[in-house]
């Protein structure tokens, strides 16, 4: 006897891919709505999931952010600007590199690849062991007890990791400036004069959207896994691929909307 898939009740009609995308959106909407309704019994699970995500992902995030800021971005930018004796302009460039692009993108990729896959595997294991069915039989809301705390934990960790990614990115830029024997004062002056609160707020908003998407994809794939251990592995692989594709799509659409609605951000400052 087949089990009903959580979140599939109101899936979009049409091809299977659209069905799953619609089900993921439906699951995200239900989870967000139920996170604001009493009772708030998911708080202890949220704390556990947040601590788990922080423990396993903070080191990869900081290393990745620093490496990307120092390596492909910083070295190439410094080599180019050094030809014109304009290393002080790196501050303005790093507003685009770190605040607008690398920080939220690295945060989303690390969270999806490390935290999202771990949560997907955990939920998939619970599904194949029929723990999710047992909770349903006991009358426990599986979305509120399993999905809501993970969604809130991933969104919160994305917002927190964005701060660490920004700091690590600026640290990488600082090392590039020091390595080129340039003064730090002009760099930070150009950085803070070019940065705007709008770009910083947009960075955090993008991370929040990433968090909701990652949680919806990974929780959906995990809680609907089937086929034993092999099915769990397949669900994890599908979750990370879909999450990465959605990260790219969200990044493109969000950036285009941001620049179209705020032409000031496209001006050279």
TrEMBL record:
Species this protein is from: Patulibacter brassicae
Region forming the signal peptide: none
Superkingdom of this protein's organism: Bacteria
InterPro entries tied to this protein: Permease_MalE
KW Protein biosynthesis (keyword) present: no
Name the UniProt record assigns to this protein: ABC transporter permease
Keyword annotations from UniProtKB, A to Z: Membrane, Transmembrane, Transmembrane helix
UniProt entry tagged with the keyword Transmembrane: yes
Transmembrane residue ranges: 52-73, 93-121, 151-178, 198-223, 235-259
Pfam families reported for this sequence: MlaE
């Amino acid at each position: 006897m087949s089990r009903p898939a959580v979140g599939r009740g109101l899936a979009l009609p049409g091809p299977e891919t659209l069905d799953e995308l619609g089900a993921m959106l439906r699951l995200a909407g239900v989870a967000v709505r139920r996170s604001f309704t009493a009772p708030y019994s998911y708080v202890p699970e949220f704390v556990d999931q947040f601590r788990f995500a922080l423990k396993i992902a903070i080191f990869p995030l900081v290393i990745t952010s620093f490496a990307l800021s120092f390596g492909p971005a910083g070295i190439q930018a410094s080599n180019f600007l050094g030809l014109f004796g304009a290393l002080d302009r790196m501050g303005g460039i790093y507003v685009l590199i770190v605040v607008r692009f690398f920080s939220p993108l690295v945060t989303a990729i690390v969270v999806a690849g490390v935290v999202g896959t771990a949560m997907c595997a955990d939920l998939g294991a619970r599904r194949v062991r029929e723990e999710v069915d047992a909770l349903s039989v006991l009358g426990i809301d599986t979305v509120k007890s399993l999905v809501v705390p993970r969604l809130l934990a991933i969104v919160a960790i994305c917002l927190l990791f964005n701060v660490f990614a920004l700091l690590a990115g600026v640290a990488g830029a600082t090392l590039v400036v020091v390595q080129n024997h340039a003064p730090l004062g002009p760099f930070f002056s150009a950085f803070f004069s070019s940065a705007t609160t709008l770009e910083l707020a947009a960075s955090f908003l993008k991370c929040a959207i990433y968090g909701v998407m990652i949680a919806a994809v990974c929780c959906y794939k995990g809680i609907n896994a089937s086929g034993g251990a092999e099915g769990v592995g397949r669900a994890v692989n599908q979750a990370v691929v879909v999450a990465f594709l959605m990260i790219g799509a969200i990044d493109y659409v969000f950036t285009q909307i941001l620049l179209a609605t705020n032409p000031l951000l496209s001006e050279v400052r």
